[in-house]
Amino acid sequence: MKRLIALALLPLAFAAAAQPWPGKPVKIVVPAPAGSSLDFIARTLGNKLSAKWHQPVVVDNKAGAGGMLGMTAVAKAPADGYVLGIGFNGPIAFAPFMYKQMAYDPAKDLMPVVLTSSQPNVLAVPAGNPARNLQEFVAWARKQPGGINYGSVGAGSSSHLTMELFRSAARFEATHVPFAGSPPAGISLASGETQALFTVAPALLPLISSGRIRLLAVTSARRMEGMKDLPTVEESGFPGFEALAWNGVFSPTGTPAPVLKRINEDFNAVMKDPEVREAFAQQGLVIGGGSIEEFRSFIQGESSKWGPIIKKAGIRID
User: Fold this and answer.
1) H helices within the chain, ranges in order?
2) How many domains does the chain have?
């Protein structure tokens, strides 16, 4: 009798195993607070994906530890495609060089799925600074006794490391002054407490429009849409210079390849939606996309690029 029951249940077991993904709600872990740009990205894409998948897409904000709290949750989740995460350069490409111990290994415990967006930094100076372009700023900075003070949105952030990369290329002395986010860093710059700041442009718009700070260059390879008059660092005399704040979707290692392929294809599809593209543009985000392999190669390039900069600058968080 037991054998007959077991045989009778086999078709049900196979049916369950063969159930197409997604068969239940999908969670997207955001390693940043509600209202952040990462939260905006997850919710904007999640709304479109929910309709496509005919399943709820739940955004779970897990901010803390420079993004590592959320990415730890993703790395330790079941590898079935039902828990995804929006990772960014901090906890993926920077952290392994700044922390002696991490609860996860980005290269081993997380699977890249797709790049969701990138955003260049802009170099801002107080309105009273005599420099009107990047070359004049470098010449001015080199003449300051003891160097300059530069702000950032946090130790180990893209804001911080972009200046370290630029300092290395431009050869001037500077002291890092970290702040908890863009608002205090921008206020410090406007008041003259710090003399330079690399961060994303939308965070500085109120200070720009009020005339308290001035932009000198952008760190992307091409000029920004909406700021065509702002030259790139590269065309300002520093060939090959590019530094982007980026983010993308990750899944726990071991997630089945067909599921990863489906997730990649569906994210690519919704990122082509005109409403999504317009919403991203309004936030100053350059929309992503591409294959799993392209995203993996991009991350490897970022790690190779920033690892030596972090080591040279002696940046340690723990």
Assistant:
1) 2-17, 37-53, 68-75, 89, 95-98, 106-109, 134-142, 158-170, 182-191, 205-209, 257-270, 274-282, 292-313
2) 2
Question: Using one digit for the tens of pLDDT, what is the confidence trace for 86-123?
Answer: 999 999 999 999 999 999 999 999 999 999 999 999 99
Tokens coding 148: 């300059």
Q: Cα–Cα distance between 138 and 180 in angstroms, integer?
A: 26
Encoded tokens for 264: 């990649």
- Is 1 a member of any domain? no
How far is 203 from 136, CA to CA, in rounded Å? 24
Helix (H/G/I), strand (E/B), else coil: 304: helix
Measured N-to-C along each axis, helices 292-313 and 158-170 cross at an angle, to the nearest 10 degrees, of: 60
In angstroms, the Cα distances linking 81 to 175, 252, 278, 283, 309 are 44, 8, 28, 28, 34
Give mean pLDDT, residues 159-184: 93
User: Does residue 175 carry a pLDDT above 90?
Assistant: yes
Please give the pLDDT value at position 18: 54
pLDDT surpassing 50 at residue 153: yes
**pLDDT above 90 for 283:** no
Q: In terms of domains, do 169 and 203 share one?
A: yes
Beta bridge pairs of residue 149: 175
Q: Please report the sign of the dihedral spanned by the C-alpha atoms of residue 193, residue 196, residue 199, residue 205.
A: positive
Nearest to residue 306, comparing CAs of 169, 158, 183, 176?
Answer: 158
The range of the structural domain enclosing residue 260 comes to 25-118+244-313
Residues 6+ apart with CB under 8 A from 14: none
- My answer on whether 256 and 187 are in the same domain is no
CATH code where residue 214 lies: 3.40.190.10
SS3 81: coil
Is 223 part of a structural domain of the chain?
no
pTM: 0.84
69 and 46 inside one domain: yes
- Please give the pLDDT value at position 29: 98
Name residues whose C-beta falls within 8 Å of residue 11's C-beta, 6 or more positions apart in sequence.
Answer: none
- Residue at 224 is within a domain: no
